[in-house]
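Lab notebook, bench 4. Still working through the backlog of constructs that have no structural model yet. Next entry is a single chain of 494 residues. Request: give me the structure tokens for it.
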Amino acid sequence: MTHFKHGHQADWSKRREAEREGVLRAKAAPESEAQGKVESEAQDRVESNAADKVACKASKTVACKPGSTVPALETELDAFGDAAWREVDTDWHFNGRPQQKPPPGDWRTWLLMGGRGSGKTRAGAEWIQGLASGEIPGLAHDGRIALVAETLGDAREVMVDGVSGILAVARSQRPAFEVTRRRLVWSSGAVAQLYSSEDPESLRGPQFHCAWCDELGKWRHQRESWDMLQFALRLGRQPRQLVTTTPRATPLLLALVKDEATVLRRIRSADNAANLAPGFLAGLGERYGGTRLGRQELDGELIADREDGLWRREQLEALVVRQPGPMRRIVVAVDPPVAGEARGSCCGIIAAGLDETGRAVVLADASVEGASPAGWAGAVVRLYRRFDADCVVAEINQGGDMVASVLRTVEPALPVRQVRATRGKWLRAEPVAALYEQGRVLHAGHFGALEDQMCDFGPDGLSSGRSPDRLDALVWALTDLVLVRRSEPAIRHL
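Model written out:
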């Protein structure tokens, strides 16, 4: 028996005992009222939660038989064996929460925003599988589906092969996954093609009946990929799309929320507590409960930018370019984590360049979390080689000369410029924020995690209380490129 990450799971013997007790209590009422009471309670349970829906099926199948007696009920409930309970358990019609089901009515976009582990992926996989197999009406036998994720790797590892992906939830009419062609094919004739937000142009040409977009909030070329998909949704009588994402207050998501053709549903991590690891919610709730980060990542709230912040998402959106020009200089900046705190810490690693017009361009965010010194040093060197950078700018407040030593164990000839912070983070960030206001900084795509820190950074730091590692690295990179005066070398190309 396969259990899915976001499916209904239970201890069968305990659940059967609980359902028997509930049914027997109902039958203890006068015989003339028993059947109606059981039926009423069963119907109420249908609209409550997954476990109660299973109870409803059992009570309707067994307890609602005319003339049943208490001893007979015990026998019949025992006869409703584990196999039958498990069959009900895997039935999405019974164990899926209402917010995970397609909304009724005339809509083009179903926007499902939820916290981590709330069941977003399971909802998306079930919708696609239901449409392609014919369990959910609305898709022709030759239906064409787009599966779009941030990267092709995400599309395969999460949407298709993931624990809650399409292949995992396909109980019947399991599709064939043609890896080389990046597509799923059902016996019904339906075909789902995988796409990456990193290549918006790949959506120019094909056409679809429906689409599933996963983690739209962190797509790199968010607006371009979304626009190309809208032009491609042109088959059938009513093209539709599902967006499953952890909320980020990007201009696109804010616009979707306000769109009259969008149906918005929110789900919390706590709603799926029965299917999450013990202690997961308690641990994160203790650390992030009530914070902006906790409300976003656990409660699925769309959090607006801080009023006292230095950056706004609308401002950053206007500065995104897809193809930066030639670079005069390129640096990789690194903000190492505190020594001895690799677990749970983040090492900020940002690549940025100075173009021929004198504007800075943020090229990449290669920050790593939970890495050892050798791990983050390797990430720095790989980014340095990828862009053929001029040097690495390394903050040494936390590690002193050890930072350069660790980097040079990976690349002995690595040019490292060591910098030490003498002012607070806010004071160092203010001149860099002014560069953005002047239009002197561009972003080569969307960098979701970095932009989250930028828009959540105030005089007291991040609202979560964590260190703004990515932002620190960005500040060092742009300070070195623009704010530190030095002679200009010749123009070079990427």
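Notes after review: Residues 12-95 form one domain. Confidence is low (pLDDT under 50) at residues 1-16, 22-68. Flag for follow-up if needed.
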